[in-house]
Amino acid sequence: MIQRTQSLLLALVVIAMGVVISNPIWEKSSAALNQKVVLTAKTLEHTQGATTVSSSTIYIAILAGIAAVIAIVSLSQYKKRVLQMSLGALNSAVLAGVLGASFYNVFKEGIPLFEPENQGNYALGFYAGVFALLANMIANRLIRRDEMLVRSADRMR
């Protein structure tokens, strides 16, 4: 059934991945040095005065897009719970990759640019990624519970 709780959670994963792609993940600024660093799913932009240097982080957007596609495919496989559980496990790994790539860019590239003692602030895109990972894990648990319920009902027949 498409109305199940896990279906709604998988739909929220798709929405959250859209938020990750379209919003900043992390940002840091210094008024004294007139510098700012913003990490999005597509670029890491370092603005110093009037000059802006950007490096590509498109792999975060690609991983987020893959996670959204896996969630959509999993959402459409509601009659095949075992396949749905496998897709959910794969999606958890991809979502962990999104968060891992974000952390890598923040700690290895973003923070050392200026004022290393200033850690910066995580933005909406980061929290949407964490929410997507949690929603995917809860959906997997609910799918597994449904499968166990079906198997126990088959045994009783």
Automatic annotation (TrEMBL):
The keyword Transmembrane helix applies. The keyword Membrane applies. The chain crosses the membrane at residues 7-26, 57-75, 87-104, 124-143. Keywords: Membrane, Transmembrane, Transmembrane helix. InterPro entries: DUF4293 (IPR025635). Pfam families: DUF4293 (PF14126). This is DUF4293 domain-containing protein. It comes from Flectobacillus longus.
